[in-house]
Design brief:
With 368 residues, the chain is an alpha/beta fold. The protein is 46% helix and 17% strand. The chain is built from 16 helices and 13 strands. Strands 3-2-1-4-5-6-7 form a seven-stranded parallel β-sheet, sandwiched between helices. It has a six-stranded parallel β-sheet with strand order 10-9-8-11-12-13, with helices on both faces.
């Protein structure tokens, strides 16, 4: 059976692509061709570039037409769909993906839907698309009930969709067959804090850095924040504290994991506030999967209602700190530095979150 995977982004960009690549590596026997939008093609087998992303105006006109709000135009999305030919269409519901799924359903095609970031939470966060919230909400609900199956990125999103829509779906985060062998070798008189990827908001991290400075001084240890990847939100903070940041640049995960595995603990965050509420309650940062492989305690700087916080607490793999007050953060830093998380605890988390049972559910959805 021929399967056409559609993403509105390149197979080489972002956490969503990391997740999808991990699944495809585990199901090589399925006949999947990855169709994608990007400014230009990227190399790779079984990948097909079908054009550039829609402009904001084109996306607005498409959504308007599909919800009968305004005449609009669905022609650009129809052209995308013409370039895909399969028995089953596997679509990621991210911006243009919602329109593509709607067009495929209108043509009577079989569609499986993947939701990495809850679309309405993304719209609320976006200043560019926020005005489209009522229209996207209407169309997304129609798509959810038109497709044959849905997978979502977290248990929290699965439960949220069940509560809001009465929809049964399954959680599928990322596929990882085993943990690497790791050996933590601490550097004497140094407090090393690791981070990979981007920040969702700079201010909580700025407060965290200040608390780390104070904590390391109390312990008479030099502070090093080991930074992997590109994050404009972190750039200014790093430039304000150049002596404590160790910039490793862009690294593949194979090279990043040993570096993170030699840190005292690892930082991840989801911000407080209504604007981020739906996002933090339903999503999971892809960096979590890298941190699990590094097998070092996780400092989850996030309100307790986030999926990230619930996982860290449930599996005992770090500390959760919802505060930006320096005294509170220093207390959490002292606790996490003094804690020990075993490989068995990370293995339990890996198996439950990224094991083969979840992958079997995807295989069933794509082949039944």
């Amino acid at each position: 059976m021929k399967i056409a995977l559609f993403t509105p982004y390149s197979p080489e960009i972002g956490g969503g692509s990391v997740q999808l690549r991990s699944h495809l590596e585990q199901i090589p026997d399925l006949d999947v061709v990855w169709h994608y939008l990007a400014e230009s093609p990227v190399a790779g087998d079984r990948r097909r570039w079908i054009g550039r992303p829609l402009t904001p105006t084109q996306f607005g006109l498409d959504i308007s037409a599909r919800t009968a709000f305004l005449p609009g135009s669905t022609a650009p999305v129809q052209e995308m769909v013409k370039q895909m030919d399969a028995n089953l269409y596997w679509v990621v519901a991210h911006y243009e993906g919602i329109s593509v799924a709607a067009e495929l359903l209108a043509q009577g095609k079989k569609v499986h839907l993947t939701v990495h970031d809850e679309p309405l939470a993304m719209i609320i966060r976006s200043r560019r698309y926020r005005a489209l919230y009522p229209l996207v909400s209407k169309l997304f609900k129609k798509v959810l009930f038109g497709v044959r199956s849905v997978d979502v990125t977290s248990w929290g999103m699965r439960d949220y969709f069940k509560g809001k829509y009465g929809l049964n779906c399954f959680a599928l985060y990322r596929s990882l067959s085993e943990l690497p062998a790791m050996r933590f070798a601490p550097i004497a008189n140094e407090l090393r804090v690791g981070h990979i990827g981007s920040l969702y908001h700079p201010e909580p991290f700025r407060c965290f850095v200040k608390a780390c400075r104070a904590s390391s001084a109390k312990q008479n240890r030099a502070l090093k924040i080991v930074r992997i990847g590109i994050s404009p939100e972190m750039d200014k903070i790093a430039s304000e504290n150049p002596e404590i940041f160790e910039n490793c640049g862009e690294l593949g995960e194979r090279d990043a994991v040993p570096i993170l595995g030699n840190c005292n603990f690892l930082y991840a965050m989801y911000p407080d506030g209504f604007r981020f509420q739906g996002f933090r309650r339903t999503s999971l940062p892809i960096k979590l999967s890298t941190y699990i492989q590094a097998q070092r305690p996780i400092f989850a700087h996030t309100p307790g209602d986030s999926n990230l916080a619930k996982i860290v607490i449930r599996y005992g793999v770090g500390q959760v700190c919802a505060s930006v007050e320096e005294a509170d953060m220093q207390g959490s830093i002292a606790e996490i530095v003094g804690s020990k998380v075993t490989r068995d605890e990370f293995e339990k988390l890996r198996n439950d979150l990224m094991g083969m049972r979840q992958l079997q559910e995807l295989r069933d959805a794509l082949t039944v």
